[in-house]
Amino acid sequence: MPNIQQHAQIIKGREVVADDWSVLRLEEAEAADSVAVPAGKVILPLSVWQAQRETLLGRAGAGEIGVWFAADELAASAKDDLGKFAVVAVDFPKFSDGRGYSIAFNLRKRLGYTGELRAIGDVLRDQLFQMQRCGFDAYATRQDRSIQDALKGLTVFSETYQASTDQPLPLFRRHQRDVPLEHSDIGAGI
After folding, report:
1. DSSP H helical segments within the chain, as ranges?
2. Residue 143 φ then ψ, to 5°
3. FRET label pair with 176: which of 99, 122, 165, 188, CA 20 to 30 Å apart?
4. Confidence tier at 174 by pLDDT (50, 70, 90)
């Protein structure tokens, strides 16, 4: 029997909302091609989608199927199907594993995914601001932590220096500085 995880609430955008999706995780002995996908809105492992694609296409068209990427999977492996999913999620197996940030960035910037991009797994308040910068817009935080406290993580900084998915221009391109004429080198005023 597959492991089904359900969050009562998630952060979507910048507010706490009810979550009507469940996340399917394979048990060690289960095979992607034979696992039973439960009814309702389900976010599947990429391997299950790839193994059962033809069977699940109708449900995906009805907005009932999402897919999640493990930290060691490439975003490009589902590039032809991204438009079929109501939700795409990226799993963070542990707090210190940052590979999911690259997956999110690639989904948004290189593959042009515009739908809901959700962080799942070991998601904590300290990560939310950077996750948002990489393209995430929904967060299923750890259930043993306060979701209201985690929400504060999205507004921890008021300004960013670097360009990213949420702000394509770096700070020095966004603000005009008063630079004396004697400073004509390219780095003056930064």
Report:
1. 46-61, 99-105, 125-134, 147-151, 171-174
2. -75, -15
3. 165
4. confident
Asked whether 107 and 82 are in contact (CB, 8 A), the reply is: yes
- Block residue for tokens 């032809």: 80
- Residue 52 tokens, joined: 């059962």
Among candidate residues 116, 128, 108, 114, the one with its CA nearest the CA of residue 68? 116
Terminal-to-terminal C-alpha distance of the chain: 58
Q: What is the mean pLDDT of the chain?
A: 90
Residue 56 phi/psi, 5° resolution?
Answer: -95, -5
**Do 110 and 135 contact (CB within 8 A), yes or no?**
no
> CA–CA distance from 189 to each of 100, 126, 168, 172 (Å)?
35, 32, 20, 9
- In order of start, what are the domains of the chain with their CATH numbers? 3-157 (3.20.20.70)
| Res 140 pLDDT > 60 | yes
**Worst-scoring range by mean pLDDT, 44-58, 98-112, 174-188?**
174-188
Distance in angstroms (rounded) separating the CA atoms of residues 120 and 123: 6
Residue with tokens 């910048």: 14
| Phi and psi angles of residue 15, each rounded to the nearest 5 degrees, phi first | -145, 155
